[in-house]
Each structure stands twice: as structure tokens, then as C-alpha cells.
Design goal:
By secondary structure, this protein is α/β, with parallel strands linked by helices. It contains ten helices and nine strands. Strand 8 and strand 9 form a beta hairpin.
């Protein structure tokens, strides 16, 4: 049997120096590898998933800071990003692991990313024409724009990789290292994290892709700053992804069986790796975190951490 092959598509969480294309922005490099404990490629969530399936990496097409939405590269829906999924000789992977969207949640629209002059914003006339300034809360267009971009991204992936299984991971709340309890800000600019997840699920189904619904497990992952996984956080993400993927494969396309398979898979997760105290917990029901005194950051430098006592 041929070895199963994988490509990885995402943002900073999925980058690693020496593996991700050096032309892309990379988060897990140098001192950040040491401070997070993500020391080697084998420590990443995606390498752990690939190893579990005895697979081989074709391409790591991650780009730190990238959104799905945006006027041009490095937005995830652009043809230039999609082209990175193939191997150096045009090899199509058997599976594509798609874990992207947390920056869309954080900015609530590419116009906010452009206004902040983020280092990962598209360098195109449309983005550069956005007046520089402090990003505001989400608008009525934020979520529909994300949905259109996610649909476009998957449609282009499906065209580029017609035979691949495309796995869309839902977004997860991170928990800041040392917090001792849930620390995620669920409505950073006024749109709930799970509204983005609903878009991801619907888009995956509409585009003939598969949902690796890691969010359905109900756990946080350990993150150095509330977003970027530590070595342990990477291990937690990988365990959740593997459980979700194996549940979908076990259900074999039977929608009625998938939820039961997911529940069974998540029930079998290691209690040492994902103990009960790592269960997700909404500690605040405000309609928006924007401008809240307990929100770590909702401006040009945003953070997914809530400092509610």
C-alpha cells in the first residue's frame, strides 16, 4: 500500500522554520521554538497527525499571520496560496490539513488588518488604500465576508486537488500557559468564535470537504500567549485532530453515525493529556470583548486572552 501523503495549510500555528516555505512568514523559528517548547518539526500538531497515519509531508503551505479573507496574497483564498499545497514537482497530496481562521476571528475583517498595517496584510493597492488607524469592532460584513472567502478557498483547493481528502479543522480556544483556568476571549470584536466555526462546517460540506470538528470535543489547548500552542498544546491539538479524523473515517459518510463516532473518539482521549480542568469554559457572556477592561488587547495588537479575575 502506498504511503499516505499530506499537505498542511494554515497560519502561524502551522508554520515551522526549515519546513514551511522560507518565502512565507514563519512563527515557530529561533527563540520562539525554545520558549514554546516546539523544538523540532516532530513537535508540531500536523507532524504528529501525519506520523499517526504513517504518512509523509508533501508541502507545508502555512503563512504566519494570514487570514482566509483579504484582497490578495497571503490571504488563504488566493490562487498563490492554493498553489503552495502541491509538492515541488506538482505532487497532489492524498490529504490536506486545513487549520486557518483564527486571524479572521482576531481582526474581524481584512480591512482591520490593513488599517493596522499588519506585517501579514496583502501588499496590494486595495489593501494599501485602507486608511491607517486603530481597528474597530466587527461589522455586519465581517462574517459574510469570511464565509465567501472560505468558500472560495475550498473551491480552489478542490479544483487544484480533485482527488484529495480536504480536512477542515474547526477553531479552538487557547488557554494561556499558567492561567490555571479558561482564559479565552470568545467575542473579541463582537462575533463569537463558534459563529466562525459554523461557517467552516457549512463551507466544508458545501464544497465536498471533510470536517475535523476538534471544537466539538470541548477542550482548550495550552498556548504560550493564548493563541500559539506550546509543545504540550501541539500534542493536544494533534490528539483532537486524529480523534476527529478517525471518527469521520469510521462513519464512512453516514451523517447519522458521525456524531456518535465523534463522541466515542473524544471519550477515548488521554485524561493525562486533556484532563477535565482543560475543558472549555465561557466565563463571560458579554456581547463583545471589544474595549472591555479585561480584554488583553482588541486594537492593532490583539490578544485572545481574557483577564477576568
Amino acid at each position: 500500500m502506498a504511503q499516505r501523503t499530506f499537505s498542511v495549510f494554515g497560519d502561524s500555528i502551522s508554520t515551522f522554520e526549515g519546513v514551511t516555505s522560507p518565502a512565507n512568514r514563519i512563527y515557530y523559528a529561533g527563540d520562539l521554538r525554545r520558549s514554546t517548547g516546539v523544538l523540532e518539526p516532530e513537535d508540531t500538531w500536523w507532524a504528529r497527525v501525519i506520523a499517526h497515519f504513517d504518512g509523509r509531508l508533501v508541502s507545508n503551505a502555512a503563512f504566519s499571520g494570514s487570514m482566509v479573507d483579504g484582497a490578495g496574497f497571503p490571504a488563504g483564498h488566493t490562487p498563490e496560496r492554493i498553489a503552495e499545497i502541491a509538492g515541488p514537482d506538482g505532487e497532489e497530496p492524498d490529504d490536506v490539513l486545513v487549520f486557518i481562521g483564527i486571524n479572521d476571528y482576531g481582526w474581524a475583517g481584512p480591512w482591520a488588518q490593513a488599517a493596522a498595517r499588519s506585517a501579514a496584510m496583502p501588499q496590494c493597492p486595495e489593501a494599501l488604500a485602507v486608511p491607517e488607524g486603530e481597528p474597530g469592532p466587527a461589522t455586519e460584513e465581517s462574517l459574510p465576508s469570511f464565509a465567501r472567502a472560505y468558500d472560495a478557498m475550498l473551491a480552489r483547493m478542490r479544483k487544484a486537488c480533485p482527488h484529495a481528502r480536504i480536512w477542515c479543522l474547526t477553531l479552538l480556544p487557547g488557554r494561556e500557559l499558567g492561567a490555571g483556568r479558561a482564559s479565552f476571549a470568545y467575542r473579541l470584536r463582537g462575533i463569537d468564535l463558534d459563529d466562525y466555526n459554523d461557517v467552516i462546517r457549512a463551507s466544508a460540506v458545501a464544497n465536498g470537504c471533510l470536517v475535523a470538528d476538534v471544537r466539538a470535543a470541548g477542550f482548550d489547548y495550552e498556548a504560550s500567549d493564548g493563541t500559539h500552542p506550546t509543545g504540550r498544546g501541539m500534542e493536544q491539538l494533534a490528539a483532537l485532530a486524529v480523534a476527529a479524523m478517525e471518527a469521520v473515517e469510521a462513519a464512512a459518510g453516514r451523517v447519522d453515525a458521525e456524531q456518535a463516532a465523534l463522541a466515542e473518539a473524544f471519550a477515548g482521549l488521554s485524561a493525562d493529556l486533556l484532563p477535565e480542568e482543560m475543558r472549555s469554559d465561557r466565563r463571560c457572556e458579554k456581547e463583545s470583548c471589544f474595549g472591555c477592561e479585561f480584554a488583553r488587547g482588541t486594537g492593532a495588537v490583539w490578544s485572545c486572552v481574557c483577564d477576568l479575575p
